Amino acid sequence: PPTLQERPTLSQPVIFNPDFFVERLRHEHPQAFADLILSNITRLIDLPGDEFAQLTGESEPRVPSSSSSSSSSGGFLRSLNFLKRKDKGVVFGAPLTEEGIAQIYQLIEYLSKNLQVEGLFRVPGHSLRQAALREMLNAGAEIDLDTGDFHPNDAATLLKAYLGELPEPLLTHRHYHAHLKIGELTRFDDNGDKTHVPDKERQIEALQLLVMLLPPANRSLLKLLLDLLYHTARNQHINRMSAINLATMFAPHIIWPKNVLASDLQSNIDKLNNGVAFLIRHSQKLFKAPVYIKEYGRLYFTGSNSLQSKDDLTLCSGTKEGPVTALMAAHHSPITRSIGSEVSSYTESALRELYQQVNNMPQSAKKKKLIRQFEKQPLLTPSSDSRTPFSRKHWRSRSLGGIIKVS
């Protein structure tokens, strides 16, 4: 049992949110939070320099464009300056806001009561009823959808329309390439060679991290949407809408780049559809931070090596020395050494693999530059014995993705 000193007091309220310290880190130290998440994403997926720069916001996102708007260079990639446009409406066509989500939530709540409708999200609604409902939502009205004036198919069609008319896909253009790479994660055999078997655990972990990088409004709506689609798919024996059927309906609205045709995405359509189906099937796990991120956040703010209970976290303001000093002091605790050993082992293995790949490259200026980058980062060199997963000293150094970024 906890000692008297370890028990929560009236001045230390108990927080029933396991991700509390993660969210606190996000709001109080956004750059440190982003560095932490990005460094772990690059541990899981290989993003070339340009794609990594797009994910971090260092460069404008560039995604497949419509062949009808091809430039002299072929038009496959283009800048997304078209996003800088005026609002089209209060809800539909407007940038994503919490106010807009509050209006659209009326559709989501209504649909959650009508999951038994066959062909939900596939069968279109009545155009005149949809027009009236759209006008009411745009006006900010509170609507009683249970009166029978509207059909679930009306609400379902409007929900898809709302997502399709957002200036940017719900999953964002910046994350487009990362989602494609996550879908390619597969298991390794006993010889260390890649197989064709999807690595679901690593895919879920990578998606958990990627979701944490979404803007708050996108994250809120994505959770509401995936919860709805998850429960819709669970009723597929009644409504005939499986996860892949739903993904086929929603992928064009939440992940496809804007202003493209199916022909422009070529072989990526199946990857995108399967990726959205994966999001639906595993939605109940995606909005939880990985355990090592939670542990980092807790150690950062408390320096404590014990929890009040398995699920509860005690809110405290750290020590007199401040969160950074407390965190460094906590590095010597048994729990930190245990976690540090596990993370270091995992990181060392990944670094060895990356370092070997670089060494196996043909001799070139690019290879020499990559080797020099490794040598400049002793903390990230596989032979180093000085790594510490909880040290903030090197957070502002470039992550793995940044190290292999070549101009």
UniProtKB/TrEMBL annotation:
Region annotation (Disordered) ranges: 55-75
Signal peptide range: none
UniProt-recorded Gene Ontology molecular function terms: GTPase activator activity
GO (cellular component) term, any one: cytoplasm
InterPro entries, A to Z: ARHGAP19_RhoGAP, Rho_GTPase_activation_prot, RhoGAP_dom
Start and end residues of each Rho-GAP domain: 94-287
BP GO terms, sorted: regulation of small GTPase mediated signal transduction; signal transduction
PROSITE patterns according to UniProt: RHOGAP
Pfam families, A to Z: RhoGAP
Keywords for the protein's UniProt record, in alphabetical order: GTPase activation
Role this protein plays: GTPase activator for the Rho-type GTPases by converting them to an inactive GDP-bound state.
Record PANTHER family: RHO GTPASE ACTIVATING PROTEIN 18,19-RELATED (PTHR14963), RHO GTPASE-ACTIVATING PROTEIN 19 (PTHR14963:SF7)
Protein's recorded name: Rho GTPase-activating protein 19
Lineage start: Eukaryota, Metazoa, Chordata, Craniata, Vertebrata
